[in-house]
Each structure stands twice: as C-alpha cells, then as structure tokens.
Amino acid sequence: MATLPQLVEEDILAIEATLRTLLKQSEAATALIADKGGFLIAHQGNAADYDLTSIAALASGAFMASQSIAGMIAETNFTSAYQQGESFSLFIQEVDEFCLLLVIFPASVGVGTVKYYASAAAPRVARQMQTAQARDPSAGLDLSVLNCAETSGFFKRRA
Amino acid sequence: MAIINQANRELQVKIVYYGPAMGGKTTNLVQVHDHVQTAQGNKGKLVSLATSSDRTLFFDFLPIEAMAIKGFKTKFQLYTVPGQVIYNTTRQLVLRGVDGIVFVADSRYDKMPENVESFQNLQDNLKSLKLDLDDIPYVLQYNKRDLPDVAPVEYMDFLLNNREVQVPAFTACANKCEGVFESLNMITRMLLHKFVNQSQPQYA
C-alpha cells in the first residue's frame, strides 16, 4: 500500500499556513489534516477544547465508511461529508489518496462558506504532499536517534 | 504505514487487535487503558463504538504514548476490529495503514474453527489492501486460558503458527490482565526494530 511521504519542517509549516488561511477566510474554529488511516498530521485553531487525536481517528473512519457506502450504491464521486450540529458542525474534504481535511466550525457559519474555502485549501495541501513525495520518494526512515532497546518493557503495568 | 513527522520528531504507529468474535480484543484495550503506567497526558480516552450488547460495532480506539522510547515522540494508536463475520467491510477499513497486529485467539477447543477462519480472513483482507502478512509484524495471543476445555498451546501453534519461522505467541487471560502487556510490548519491540532496520543505509 502506498503511504504518506516523510514530512519535514517545511511541509508542516506550509500545511499549517494553509490551514490558518482557511480558518481566517471561513471563520471556522479548528482545521486539521488527518491520514485516512486515522493519524493526525497537522492542525490549527482552537485545539484545547477538543480531543483532536480521537476526532481524527473517528472522522477518518466515518468518512471511509461513507465512501464505501457510496461505492456500494454506484456513486463514484464522493469527496466530502458534512455533519450538521446545533452549536458546532464538521466538514470533511478529501485532499488526495492519503489524507483528509477536517474543519470544525460554529453553526452560525454557513457550510457553503466552509466548503468553498476548504475546496481551495485541499489542493494546496495536496501539492505540498506531492512536494514532500518528490523530495525523495525512495527515502528510508530516518530513525537513527530512536532508542528502543533501553528497557525491557515499553509499556509498564501500574503496580 | 507509520507517520513519520521529522519536523516535530514524531512517530505515529497503528496496531490492530484482530481475531474472532468475543475473543477478548476489546478486553485487551480496556486492560491497557486501565493499567498502563504513563506520564500525565500520554494516555488518551478509550473510544468504543459498541452495540447495546457490548459487541464492537465499528472499532475501539486507544491513543497512547510509550514512556521508554527516546529520540522520537512515539504515539501508538491501538484499534480493535469487530469480530462478527458480517462486519468484514469494517475490518478492511480499520486495517488501512496498519503497522502491527495482535491476533487474539480464543483458546477453547470449540472456537478453533472460528480462530482459523478469522486468521484466514485477516490474510484475505490484507491482500485486498495489497499487503502481505509476511511483511507485517504480528504476534499471537492465546486468550481465555483460565476457561475449561482449552486446547494445548502446541495445537494452537499447529493451527495458527505453522510456518518456517514462528511468530511470538503468548498465553493470556485478558480479563485478569495476564498476557496483555506481554503481547503489546512484543509487538512494539518488533515494530520499532523493523523501522530501525529500514532506516539503516542500504549498500549495494
């Protein structure tokens, strides 16, 4: 299975800048990029109020499930999903083969506005991912500083 | 495949607990959540999408950070899949991006056909994602050893671990937290060693 490229500081800064622009334009509360496998990649906005790790995992699962349902009813064009709320809503836009753009926004903001600006932001994120991929597509993992032989147990049971 | 973010030195890894229905996958996550020793803030909430009868509907999810790994902030995401045969599409979704697998088998004799069917289903689902079980670190957990009428470990090895180089297998009573951390630590060790080996320079 193809996977996301390694992301360096330049990539993260560019993606975060795109998310900040999106938040400013749309007046949304929080924007995040999540891998379709459920990993949180980057986020901007109000992070303190939300468990973004869990939101990324659940939203990715929900989006992928909806996309599978769309496929089962012969709908091939499924690129976004909208969860409407009374106080806050969630809009999910597919970025590329690997990741999703999630936008949490107050109910006072119209979903059309969010969708309009998210549609512009998603290709910018996709281009940055392509740039990261093109940097060295065959690059191995640079984990030379990872020290995983230090102790006998990574996860310890509480006494 | 794990997410490596060199910018903030962060590694995110996905481990999926797989196995037949009612085999103890969710119990493993509950025990890890309840008993793991972590620095403050390193353990997330256990999210469980279950039916009214406590059967996993979509997946269970536990984000957690290991204490003993230095160099990278290493975040683990533990998932379970629903074991019921009818939820196969869901299992395929959860397997997307998997890095390591803990296969939780039910040790009772009468559950052996379900264990074998689930193991075969795992291989089939990985193939549908263009993955091969031989390339993914995994461990076996023979759960429910405290119940009567359990099969000998050698017999379960014959059914589930019948390969040239056997993978690590652990006996467990997940409801008593026995074998739970042993399985998790072993899959973690296998995963990280795989990543470190991949990061070594390759010479022709």
What does this structure look like?
The complex is a heterodimer of chains A (159) and B (204). Chain A is an alpha+beta fold and 159 residues long. In chain A, 40% of the residues lie in helices and 21% in strands. Chain A is built from three helices and six strands. The relative contact order of chain A is 0.18. Chain B is 31% helix and 25% strand. Chain B has five helices and nine strands; from the N terminus they run E-E-H-E-E-E-E-H-E-H-E-H-E-H. In chain B, strands 1, 2, 4, 5, 6, 7, 8 and 9 form an eight-stranded mixed sheet that branches. The mean pLDDT of chain B is 88. At the A-B interface, helix 1, helix 2 and strand 6 of A face strand 1, strand 2, strand 3, strand 5 and strand 6 of B.
List keywords for this structure.
heterodimer, A: 159 residues, alpha+beta, 40% helix, 21% strand, globular, B: 204 residues, alpha/beta, 8-stranded mixed beta sheet, 5 helices, 31% helix, 25% strand
State the gist of this model.
The complex is a heterodimer of chains A (159) and B (204). By secondary structure, chain A is an alpha+beta fold.
Give the helix proportion of chain A (percent range). Answer: 40-55%
| Continuous helix count of chain B | 5
Helix-strand string of chain B: EEHEEEEHEHEHEH
Q: How much of the sequence of chain A is in beta strands?
A: 15-25%
Low-confidence stretches of chain A: none
Overall pLDDT confidence of chain A = 88
Number of helices of chain A: 3
Instruction: Report the strand count of chain A.
Output: 6
Most residues in contact, chain pair and counts: A-B, 46 and 59 residues
Give the class of chain B from helix and strand content and strand pairing: alpha/beta
Shape, principal axes of CA atoms of chain A: globular
The oligomerization state is: heterodimer
**Distance between the ends of chain A:** 40 Å
Q: For the record, give the distance between the C-alpha atoms at the N and C termini of chain B, rounded to a whole number.
A: 25 Å
| Weakly predicted, low-confidence segments of chain B | none
- The value of Rg of chain A in angstroms is 17 Å
Estimated share of beta-strand residues of chain B: 25-35%
Average of per-residue pLDDT values of chain B: 88
- Secondary structural class of chain A: alpha+beta
What letter string, H or E per element, gives the SSE order of chain A? HEEHEEEHE
